Amino acid sequence: MKSPSVIIFDVDGVLVDVRGSFQKTTLETVKFFTGKRVTRTELHRWKNLSGYNDDWKLSTAWVRALGGEFEYEEVKRKFVELYWGKNRGGNVRSERWMLPRAGLQALARKSELAIFTGRTREELDYTLNRNEVRDFFARIVTVEDVKLPKPDPEGLLKILGGRTATDALYIGDNIDDALAAQGAQVPFVGVLPRRGEERPERERRLLELGAKAILHSINELRAWLDRKAGQRGSRTFFPSKP
C-alpha cells in the first residue's frame, strides 16, 4: 500500500506546543479585559466548538461572554502585544517545536509535506525560521492566503491542486480542522495529548467527524503510517467505502 501523496499539517497543537504561547496569551487577554481569572479547562470548552480556531475571535467572544464590552480590534491589539512582547520576547518565546528534523526527513522521503494553518504568515514564518524547518514543506497556506478561514476547506483544496483528495492526509487537533478535512474529503487524523484536559470531549467529537485515528503526539505519525501501509487489500492509502 502506498503512502499518502501529501501530508498536510495544522501547526498549533500539532507541530508546535502552544500552551505557553497562544493558550497563555488567550487567558491573559481575557483576564486583562475582564479582571476575572479564567482557566485552561474553560479555554478548551471554547476550543471544542466550531468557529473558534481564531484565537483573536475566541478571546473577543469570551470577553463579551463575561460582560466585557470591547471590540474585536481592541482585543486583538492586546493579544498581539502579549504574544509578541517587546523585541519578540513575549509569550511566543515559550513555543516548542515537537517534530524533530529526523522525523520530518523520514516523512518527506515518502510523501510531500505541506501546512494549512490558521496562523498569519508572520507568526508562521517566525516559527519555521526559528526552528530551521521551512525547507521540509513544499506548500504552505496561512489564514491570509484564503478567502474564508477554517472550517472552510479552501486551504486544503489549494494544496491538493487537483490531486485526489483520498490520497492525501490532514493532521489537526481541533473541530475546525476536522470539518475542513470533511469539506475537502481529505482523510483526517487527530493529535491530542494523552493527558490533556481537552482530550476526552474533543476525541469523541473528532471521531464523530470521521477521524481515522487519534494520536497522542505527532511523533507517533510515522509508526501509524507504517502500520497502515503494511495492511493488505488496497492500492490506495485510504480506500473508499463500498
Plain-language structure description:
With about 240 residues, the chain is α/β, with parallel strands linked by helices. It folds into two domains: about 5-20 and about 95-230, Rossmann fold; about 20-95. Helices cover about 45% and strands about 10% of the residues. It has ten helices and eight strands. The protein has helices spanning about 20-35, 40-45, 55-65, 70-85, 100-110, 120-130, 155-160, 175-185, 200-210, 220-230; strands at about 5-10, 15, 95, 110-115, 140, 170, 190, 215. The strands form two sheets. A six-stranded parallel sheet has the order 5-4-1-6-7-8. A two-stranded antiparallel ribbon has the order 2-3. The radius of gyration is 18 Å and the shape is globular. The chain starts with 5 loop residues before the first strand and ends in a 12-residue tail after the last helix. The mean pLDDT is about 95.
List the SSEs and their pairings.
Blueprint: E1 6-9, E2 16-17, H1 19-34, H2 40-47, H3 55-65, H4 72-84, E3 96-97, H5 101-108, E4 112-116, H6 121-131, E5 139-141, H7 154-160, E6 168-172, H8 175-184, E7 188-191, H9 199-208, E8 214-215, H10 221-230
